[in-house]
Design goal:
Layout lengths: L14 E2 L6 E6 L10 H9 L3 E6 L12 H18 L5 E3 L11 H14 L3 E5 L4 E2 L3 E2 L2 H16 L7 H5 L10 E5 L6 E4 L4 H9 L2 H7 L4 H15 L9 E8 L1
Parallel strand pairs: 1-9, 2-3, 2-5, 3-4, 5-8
Antiparallel strand pairs: 6-7, 8-10, 9-10
Helix pairs in contact: 1-6, 2-6, 3-4, 6-8
């Protein structure tokens, strides 16, 4: 006989992500940020005919110790464009902030707000901006800065009196952002079935081959498959037994 589960210790169940939207803008710091667990959801969304655009604050030029930034930046940009194409994303933009030393502030908020006004998304996607990953691994300052700035820029984009110079450039206010979804959050609230997009998510991460070769001595495909399927399956008990790509969702 199965004992009843203690409701005080039962994991909080994840809700399905909203589906009544057409355009999303994903804003992260580096090439590969979206591929570590989020691109499977993006593959499912583009399959459904939704439009997803990527905006990266840097080209990841400081991410490969054996390559100088002048060589690593263009290489990682090419890998990111190829990676995005695997999951149906055609538009990838870069802001040219410096990798490793992105500063949270009005300049970053303005750049993201400009992209929001230009692309007019209903859904914004960003990465964990808390100080740690799962309370055990220190997060990077770049992730913290870009995540926080994305949340703030969602409001900035809709206020014509914040960054009025954007309107002078023809970028009229856009207050249509309805949600901000944070991937990699320690406190997720919503999820997408990881199974339909999993194989493409793995291939998408594999496109960052130069970075992966510098990161691990493990076989790249084995590493990518184990990493992505492991996280998806870990969250399955909170999503009806279904492997999940998770988000912390903020409604606006």
């Amino acid at each position: 006989m199965t004992e009843p589960q203690n409701s005080a210790t039962a994991p909080v169940q994840l809700q399905p992500m909203p589906e009544d939207w057409q355009r999303a803008l994903a804003v992260v710091a580096h090439p590969d940020d979206l591929e570590y667990g989020c691109s499977g959801a993006i593959a499912s969304w583009t399959d459904a005919g939704r439009e997803v655009t990527y905006l990266l604050a840097t080209r990841g030029e400081a991410g490969i110790d054996t390559l100088p930034p002048a060589e690593a930046g263009p290489l990682r940009e090419r890998e990111q464009r190829a990676s995005a194409a695997v999951v149906g994303v055609d538009t990838v933009e870069f802001l040219d902030h410096r990798d490793g030393v992105i500063e949270y502030g009005t300049a970053l908020r303005r750049d993201i707000a400009a992209a929001i006004r230009r692309h007019r998304p209903e859904l914004l996607i960003t990465l964990n901006y808390q100080e740690t990953w799962a309370g055990t691994h220190w997060n990077t300052p770049d992730h913290v800065a870009v995540g926080r700035a994305t949340l703030d820029a969602a409001a900035d984009a809709g206020n014509r009196w914040i960054f009025p110079e954007l309107a002078e450039r023809g970028l009229e206010p856009w207050g249509g952002v309805r949600w901000v979804a944070v991937a990699g959050s320690d406190t997720p609230t919503h999820a997408v079935d990881a199974r339909p997009g999993m194989e493409r998510a793995i291939r998408s991460l594999l496109e960052h081959r130069a970075y992966l070769e510098a990161l691990t001595d493990e076989d790249p495909e084995k590493y990518c498959r184990g990493f992505l399927t492991g996280f998806a399956e870990e969250l399955a008990p909170r999503f009806g037994g279904t492997p999940a790509v998770t988000f912390q969702l903020f409604a606006r």
